[in-house]
């Protein structure tokens, strides 16, 4: 490696020496040419053209020599680089055994997936469900049942019905205020009294009974005449219980279940076992739903009064405190 570097250094030194000699020669030639130009200027004009031609040729020679020098320098440097790269590095040889395995590649068989047959879904037409509209709010009807000069039963009713007929279909209708009281009785069996309200397609019957202290509806029945035949709905629980001599009143909507029918009661005021000296409804006992509504009013009034008292008390205390502060500041 050191020997190669020394050779490279010597070659560079030689090339530099040759280049310096070339430059000195060119400088001397330039100086000679300048002297020649001065001599030519002193000579006649007839020889001026010849001198200029010689100057051009000398300049061209100078350019050629300069280019030749650079080319020579490039060739020397390229040769030096080739010498440095041509020497291969010394490596220890090792035996390398390569085993070649010949395998026969089996051709790949691509199986195209069979697309399942597309079955178009059957066209289904959705039939809109028809909902039976709710009947209009029934009117309030008023009925009396009399026997001679005694009105034993008084009734004011606002009632509607939701039933399922023999065909399994839902039907709705309301109690007509013009329903007849035919079949009503102040002296029915076992001391009961009947309020029978009849219209074209139905018969509604209230059976009143009493004990030593209370009057109530013992039985309520609805006979409905549908196209498939007559169907009967009833409820045998004690309804609308009040003290003897009182009437029953309810302004809150209530429902009475009667098997496959529901009697919607929007307003009711009834009284049974009336006496001759009575000209109208006796003292009314309100239903529990009306009692809850009526109880809300006094509670709300009491809360408002309590809030007003608290506000007045706070205002009094604030005013008293301010008056004390003014007294302290004046002192």
From TrEMBL:
<feature type="transmembrane region" description="Helical">
    <location>
        <begin position="296"/>
        <end position="318"/>
    </location>
</feature>
<dbReference type="Pfam" id="PF01299">
    <property type="entry name" value="Lamp2-like_luminal"/>
</dbReference>
<feature type="compositionally biased region" description="Low complexity">
    <location>
        <begin position="121"/>
        <end position="132"/>
    </location>
</feature>
<feature type="domain" description="Lysosome-associated membrane glycoprotein 2-like luminal">
    <location>
        <begin position="138"/>
        <end position="273"/>
    </location>
</feature>
<dbReference type="InterPro" id="IPR048528">
    <property type="entry name" value="Lamp2-like_luminal"/>
</dbReference>
<keyword id="KW-0968">Cytoplasmic vesicle</keyword>
<dbReference type="GO" id="GO:0031902">
    <property type="term" value="C:late endosome membrane"/>
</dbReference>
<dbReference type="GO" id="GO:0005765">
    <property type="term" value="C:lysosomal membrane"/>
</dbReference>
<keyword id="KW-0967">Endosome</keyword>
<feature type="domain" description="Lysosome-associated membrane glycoprotein 2-like transmembrane">
    <location>
        <begin position="297"/>
        <end position="325"/>
    </location>
</feature>
<protein>
    <recommendedName>
        <fullName>Lysosome-associated membrane glycoprotein 5</fullName>
    </recommendedName>
</protein>
<feature type="signal peptide">
    <location>
        <begin position="1"/>
        <end position="17"/>
    </location>
</feature>
<dbReference type="Pfam" id="PF21222">
    <property type="entry name" value="Lamp2_2nd"/>
</dbReference>
<keyword id="KW-0325">Glycoprotein</keyword>
<keyword id="KW-0812">Transmembrane</keyword>
<keyword id="KW-0732">Signal</keyword>
<keyword id="KW-0966">Cell projection</keyword>
<dbReference type="GO" id="GO:0072594">
    <property type="term" value="P:establishment of protein localization to organelle"/>
</dbReference>
<feature type="region of interest" description="Disordered">
    <location>
        <begin position="108"/>
        <end position="141"/>
    </location>
</feature>
<keyword id="KW-1133">Transmembrane helix</keyword>
<comment type="similarity">
    <text>Belongs to the LAMP family.</text>
</comment>
<keyword id="KW-0472">Membrane</keyword>
<dbReference type="InterPro" id="IPR048524">
    <property type="entry name" value="Lamp2-like_TM"/>
</dbReference>
<comment type="function">
    <text>Plays a role in short-term synaptic plasticity in a subset of GABAergic neurons in the brain.</text>
</comment>
<dbReference type="InterPro" id="IPR002000">
    <property type="entry name" value="Lysosome-assoc_membr_glycop"/>
</dbReference>
<feature type="disulfide bond">
    <location>
        <begin position="250"/>
        <end position="287"/>
    </location>
</feature>
<keyword id="KW-1015">Disulfide bond</keyword>
<keyword id="KW-0770">Synapse</keyword>
<dbReference type="GO" id="GO:0005886">
    <property type="term" value="C:plasma membrane"/>
</dbReference>
């Amino acid at each position: 490696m050191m020997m190669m570097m020394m050779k490279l250094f010597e070659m560079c030194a030689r090339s530099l020496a040759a280049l310096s000699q070339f430059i000195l020669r060119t400088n001397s030639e330039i100086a000679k040419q300048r002297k020649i130009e001065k001599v030519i200027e002193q000579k006649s004009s007839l020889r001026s053209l010849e001198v200029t031609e010689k100057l051009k040729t000398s300049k061209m020679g100078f350019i050629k020599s300069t280019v030749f020098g650079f080319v020579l320098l490039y060739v020397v440097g390229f040769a030096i680089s080739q010498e440095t790269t041509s020497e291969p590095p010394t490596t220890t040889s090792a035996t390398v055994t390569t085993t070649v395995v010949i395998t026969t590649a089996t051709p790949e068989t691509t199986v195209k997936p069979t697309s399942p047959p597309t079955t178009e879904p059957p066209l289904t037409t959705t039939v809109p469900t028809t909902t039976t509209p709710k009947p209009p709010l029934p009117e309030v009807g008023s009925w009396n049942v009399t026997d001679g000069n005694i009105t034993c039963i008084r009734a004011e009713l606002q009632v509607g019905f939701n039933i399922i007929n023999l065909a399994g279909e839902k039907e709705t209708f309301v109690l007509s205020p013009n329903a007849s009281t035919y079949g009503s009785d102040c002296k029915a069996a076992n001391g009961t009294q009947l309020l029978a309200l009849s219209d074209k397609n139905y018969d509604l019957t209230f059976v009143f009974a009493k004990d030593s202290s209370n009057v109530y509806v013992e039985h309520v029945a609805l006979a409905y005449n549908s196209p498939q035949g007559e169907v009967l709905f009833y409820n045998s629980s004690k309804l609308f219980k009040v003290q003897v001599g009182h009437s029953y009143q309810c302004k809150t909507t209530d429902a009475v279940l009667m098997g496959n029918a529901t009697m919607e009661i929007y307003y009711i005021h009834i009284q049974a076992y009336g006496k001759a000296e009575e000209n109208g409804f006796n003292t009314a006992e309100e239903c529990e739903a009306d009692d809850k509504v009526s109880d809300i009013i006094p509670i709300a009034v009491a809360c408002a009064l309590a809030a007003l008292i608290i506000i007045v008390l706070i205002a009094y205390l604030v005013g008293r405190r301010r008056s004390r502060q003014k007294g302290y500041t004046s002192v």
